[in-house]
């Protein structure tokens, strides 16, 4: 086993969990930062993962978690507290002399962002930059996993969203390959910001037409108003989350999420999967 140890936040989440798996497969020591000791963390320990229980908003738990760590992956949910968490994490990493950090931001992060979460991501990037740490920022477009979140609507055959722009969906497992590769060889990526895309752009109408062909039944995409979507979101998620999703939906229509590139292919040696591969891989979810 390698002497290198990596700290993975969001270790039971999408990108964090997949990154952890890859690093384990490649023979590295992995420390998982989790909110609580539960069945998932117990299973990680059984596989040789060191588990650190803590909160990204509690410096006293972050600081020891970064001891003896070569590199770390930082990811924060769509919730208040990102700037505070980033500041704590950066200070703890400096004290622990962590060599490299991969920061999960988002493509809508910019000074003029109307989404509170997206603006906070832009400020959080600046905090990491000011820290002097070797940080790589990732700004992905919408995840391909959005289609999994819509599984129930896809089963019914009608998806109602307000999005009207284009983007190239990017799967979390492809992002995880990139994160693991950067942590393994951080020097050439320090100070870089990578925008992450899948191979092919679609409008959601085009995407659901493609999905219809794959599943062999019609899935209709119906554009609804931002106001209606906001009310739908507020029934199931926090006001902070709803504000973010509605504002990035507007960004989507303005082209903020559009584009393609070959960053993942160049760095990892394997291009990201396309929509057809992703849907077929998860086909049972939509039946």
TrEMBL record:
<dbReference type="InterPro" id="IPR036291">
    <property type="entry name" value="NAD(P)-bd_dom_sf"/>
</dbReference>
<protein>
    <submittedName>
        <fullName>NmrA family transcriptional regulator</fullName>
    </submittedName>
</protein>
<dbReference type="InterPro" id="IPR051604">
    <property type="entry name" value="Ergot_Alk_Oxidoreductase"/>
</dbReference>
<feature type="domain" description="NmrA-like">
    <location>
        <begin position="3"/>
        <end position="236"/>
    </location>
</feature>
<dbReference type="InterPro" id="IPR008030">
    <property type="entry name" value="NmrA-like"/>
</dbReference>
<dbReference type="Pfam" id="PF05368">
    <property type="entry name" value="NmrA"/>
</dbReference>
């Amino acid at each position: 086993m390698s002497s290198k140890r990596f700290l993975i936040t969001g270790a039971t989440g999408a990108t964090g969990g997949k990154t952890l798996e890859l690093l384990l497969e490649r023979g590295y020591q992995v420390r998982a930062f989790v909110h609580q000791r539960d069945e998932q963390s117990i299973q990680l320990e059984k596989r040789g993962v060191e588990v650190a229980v803590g909160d990204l908003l509690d410096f006293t738990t972050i600081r020891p978690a970064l001891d003896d760590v070569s590199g770390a992956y930082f990811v924060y949910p769509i919730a208040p507290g990102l700037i505070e968490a980033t500041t704590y994490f950066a200070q703890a990493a400096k004290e622990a002399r962590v060599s490299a950090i991969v920061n999960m931001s988002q493509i809508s992060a910019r000074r003029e962002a109307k989404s509170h979460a997206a603006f906070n991501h832009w400020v959080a990037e600046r905090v990491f930059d000011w820290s002097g740490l070797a940080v790589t920022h990732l700004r992905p477009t919408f995840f391909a996993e959005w289609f999994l979140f819509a599984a129930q609507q896809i089963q019914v055959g009608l998806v109602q969203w307000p999005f009207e722009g284009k983007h190239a969906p990017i799967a979390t497992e492809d992002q995880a390959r990139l994160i693991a590769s950067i942590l393994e060889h951080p020097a050439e990526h320090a100070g870089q910001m990578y925008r992450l895309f899948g191979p092919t752009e679609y409008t959601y109408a085009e995407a659901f037409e493609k999905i219809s062909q794959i599943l062999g039944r019609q899935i209709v995409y119906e554009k609804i108003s931002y106001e209606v979507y906001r009310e739908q979101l507020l029934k199931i998620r926090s006001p902070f989350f709803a504000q973010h999703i509605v504002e990035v939906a507007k960004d989507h229509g303005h082209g903020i999420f559009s584009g393609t590139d070959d960053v993942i292919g160049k760095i990892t040696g394997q291009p990201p999967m396309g929509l057809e591969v992703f849907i077929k891989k998860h086909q049972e979810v939509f039946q």
